[in-house]
Write a structure and sequence with these properties.
Diaminopimelate Epimerase, Chain A, domain 1; binds manganese (II) ion; five-stranded parallel β-sheet; 323 residues; six-stranded mixed β-sheet; alpha/beta
Length: 323
């Protein structure tokens, strides 16, 4: 079976505990938000109490932000189990970590690169294309009816983390059985596509266009370096720095193998997002790890202190062994 059996000790937690705190990583993406909501739907069906936490900021799925708190109260934490989704690195819980660090913790995640010492119980499978599919395994193992709400959320997380099926590899094709189950339970493929790709405002397109116009193509156009700036951020305030659209555009160029996106923060440090083409052998996850960041083979990120010019040179040189 593609998804390993969930340990009985872990399943028992849903019997033992009556209260739960659900949390995902800061700067939540579609998979993180949907996994959190998926777990909350599971707990609802089990008649358990729960609270959803996230440090934010919400740049995606802003309409769901109201479901999440930034800080739990003492009563919500007392005798509760913490469930961490889509994250196995305590630092990535951001400002929320301090409130939950002493709680008994179950981690449900598909990042293998996390802290070994974080979490008391773990269901981690790096091969799973999304965390939402791991959450689905809990519905199945606990025999919980998958509500339409849950199916939609779990399918959405799968869709965003796979770039709408595009990043699924051959070994992962088994998961289509699970995806089928979600569609059967009410997830709508065309609505999900629309929600993912057809919600841009004009500003977002103009922001991406400005970034592409300034992009630097090196190594026979195999590597692209893109920088945003204070100026662009001010000019396109409502663009929300949607980098997925940028990556899609650039990766559609035949010669391009990888992208370095250097994001402006405050002039003293930068956030880097790295991408490599699906069929490329450039492991950007490994590169990000060397800067204490994290991610996957083809998508990863990290923060770097220093001036932008120096930072870009340092990151560029890490790509040399691949190009
Ligand atoms: Mn994920």
């Amino acid at each position: 079976m593609f998804f390993p059996k969930i340990d009985d000790n872990i399943l028992k937690l849903f019997d033992t505990y009556d209260k739960f705190v659900i949390i995902g990583h800061e700067n939540p993406d579609g998979d993180c938000i949907s996994s959190s909501i998926g777990v909350s739907e599971l707990l609802k069906k089990l008649n358990k109490k729960y609270v959803l936490l996230n440090a934010g900021p919400f740049t995606k799925e802003k309409d769901l932000e109201y479901l999440f708190k930034k800080e739990p109260n003492d009563n919500e934490k007392k005798d509760a189990l913490l469930i961490v989704v889509d994250c196995s690195t305590s630092a990535r819980l951001g400002s929320c970590y301090k409130y939950v660090k002493d709680m008994p913790t179950l981690i449900i995640d598909h990042h293998e690169s996390g802290d070994k010492s974080f979490g008391d119980y773990k269901y981690i499978l790096g091969d799973s294309p999304s965390t939402t599919l791991l959450v689905l395994q809990f519905f199945k193992a606990l025999n919980v009816e998958i509500s339409e709400e849950a199916a939609k959320a779990l399918f959405f997380g799968f869709s965003t983390d796979t770039g709408f099926f595009r990043f699924l590899n051959k070994e992962q094709s088994h998961v289509l059985n699970d995806v089928y189950l979600l569609v059967e339970k009410g997830a709508v493929i065309s609505d999900t596509y629309d929600k993912m790709f057809n919600q841009n405002n004009k500003e977002q397109k103009l922001y991406v266009a400005s970034l592409i116009k300034k992009a630097q193509f090196i190594n026979d156009d195999k590597l692209v370096i893109v920088r945003d700036s204070k100026y662009l951020l001010n000019k396109y305030k409502s663009a929300n720095r949607d980098s997925d659209a940028l990556f899609d555009q650039l990766l559609s160029i035949k010669s391009v193998q990888a992208i370095i996106l250097c994001k402006y923060i405050n002039g003293k440090e930068n956030v880097f997002s790295l991408r490599s083409k699906n069929n490329s052998n450039i492991d950007v996850g490994k590169i990000a790890q060397s800067f204490n960041g994290g991610g996957h083979f083809h998508a990863a990120g990290f923060k770097l202190k220093g001036t932008e010019k120096q930072n870009i040179e340092i990151v560029k040189s890490k790509f040399k062994e691949y190009l």
